[in-house]
Amino acid sequence: xxxxxxxxxxxxxxxxxxxxxxxxxxxxxxxxxxxxxxxxxxxxxxxxxxxxxxxxxxxxxxxxxxxxxxxxxxxxxxxxxxxxxxxxxxxxxxxxxxxxxxxxxxxxxxxxxxxxxxxxxxxxxxxxxxxxxxxxxxxxxxxxxxxxxxxxxxxxxxxxxxxxxxxxxxxxxxxxxxxxxxxxxxxxxxxxxxxxxxxxxxxxxxxxxxxxxxxxxxxxxxxxxxxxxxxxxxxxxxxxxxxxxxxxxxxxxxxxxxxxxxxxxxxxxxxxxxxxxxxxxxxx
Length: 284
Ligand SMILES: NC(=O)c1ccc[n+]([C@@H]2O[C@H](COP(=O)([O-])OP(=O)(O)OC[C@H]3O[C@@H](n4cnc5c(N)ncnc54)[C@H](OP(=O)(O)O)[C@@H]3O)[C@@H](O)[C@H]2O)c1
Description:
Layout: E1 2-6, H1 11-22, E2 26-28, H2 40-49, E3 54-57, H3 73-94, E4 97-103, H4 126-141, E5 144-150, E6 153-154, H5 161-171, E7 174-178, E8 182-183, E9 186-187, H6 188-200, E10 206-209, E11 216-217, H7 218-229, E12 234-238, E13 252-253, H8 258-264, H9 271-282
Parallel strand pairs: 1-2, 1-3, 3-4, 4-5, 5-10, 6-9, 7-12, 8-13
Antiparallel strand pairs: 8-11
Helix pairs in contact: 1-6, 2-3, 3-4, 5-7, 7-9
């Protein structure tokens, strides 16, 4: 397949580039300097002037707390919202397949069970609102699409929870991590692999929830990093109300993975297995 990959400098995009290349696909990697998502003409010209079958959009304005800042929010609305609509309309009018990524933050986290693709959305922060806007614009344009919601992403080339905690565990005698937010960690390599599986198996177009198998709290996630790195630092429990940040986070971010598992033909790997691989092979 000939794939145009947007956001190849980011955490997910850089791993997607590696995984797609390893699978023998031909990849175009326009950078922000070639295709700035805030420039509609640049997007349309890119579609006119380049030959590819699939557009994989790994871009995003991903600084969740910064989205609450009135000066930075317009950029988030543009990259996560408006631009996704433009990409989707271009895919529709030129017959390209669109793969796009969204987030667990489209939900308010009050459900006690894992979230299914059919559950009602209700973001509790601006980032989630901008991502939901992108989803809606994409679905309204209605190209052939795979819209993949994911959660708690980690991998090389980007700040992420695992990297932060692994660093703190090396230098601090004790850290406090919240126990009252639960979700599914997701390794970028497995997420990129899932996108390829959907494309390769010609799965039904639509919305999919993807994370690694299993779930935990942020505290449980940190405990596992501690075990795998052999740290002696204490990972103490705390609550979200004691750890106030500009953007509110949903308490429950768990996804029901049935639809994704059926489409891929297997369950995703357990998150502990992916975490171990990342820690031992990539985050040395
Ligand atoms: N990280 C998570 O925990 C998480 C969780 C759920 C969902 N997601 C979703 O997964 C996707 C990938 O996230 P990520 O963490 O890999 O993101 P990331 O590391 O922050 O990378 C973002 C990418 O978007 C590009 N970009 C931003 N603004 C742009 C613009 N105006 N024009 C062109 N390119 C632009 C960046 O390019 P530059 O290098 O030029 O800045 C970078 O390549 C996003 O859709 C995100 O919402 C992430």
